[in-house]
């Protein structure tokens, strides 16, 4: 199978999964359904990013913009549901959380009630039409192309962008870790989408990337929770809550910082250098 056809097959597969996740979310927008839709959308976006670099076309850029808008529409619901999961587990040991928990429940109910309208506001026929137009363009331009060198270049550039964000990490600025997380997510999904056309990766490579992202995700969720606690309680956050979640936040941050250099194991520093797993001793 030609390289281009492999990528088109991956695009079809991701599109089908995205549509299924979207339907699931329409029927029952639970935390799990929203989470799975966001993952499917991010994977689709990463492949579209790769494809529009290989074969630019206005429909690809428009499709990317539509999907990104849809992804962003679920940010508040996702954050609320993640906080609810955490707070529910701690109500017995931290009873002062009860009013905050009730406020989160009300906010979740309101956001869930808004979800059908938010989904309805997204012009799915237009997105589908743009997908079909993009697919036709890609079939014509990439269907029989040999793309391995070009894909390697795109992933090299994606990794270098992630490394620039890695170098910019400031533990006093949570957004710097969040920006790194977004860049590493893009790298992970590109590696997954193009894996059949890449040099063999270590057996647990994607799992290690996922673990790295999970640590940053836990830090981001903790940062969001602390901000929301402060917004709810003002300057009067109960000492038991403040103490517990500040300590928890510090532990999560320390765990990530202790392993942050693992990013250097995920790809080569430049096209002229070996992959890290090739230069490791047996």
Report on this model:
- This protein has 282 residues and is mainly α.
- Helices cover 77% and strands 0% of the residues.
- It is flat and about 65 Å long.
- The mean pLDDT is 90.
- This is CHAD domain-containing protein.
- InterPro entries: CHAD_dom, CHAD_dom_sf.
Low-confidence stretches: none
Largest sheet: none
Nearest-angstrom radius of gyration?
21 Å
**Proportion of beta-strand residues:** under 5%
Strand tally: 0
What structural class do the secondary elements suggest? mainly alpha
Summarize this structure as a short list of keywords or feature phrases:
282 residues; mainly alpha; 11 helices; 77% helix; flat; CHAD domain-containing protein; CHAD_dom; CHAD_dom_sf
Please specify the SSE layout and strand pairing:
Elements: H1 3-27, H2 31-54, H3 58-72, H4 75-90, H5 98-121, H6 124-142, H7 148-167, H8 174-194, H9 205-233, H10 239-259, H11 276-279
How would you sum up this structure in a few lines?
By secondary structure, the chain is mostly helical.
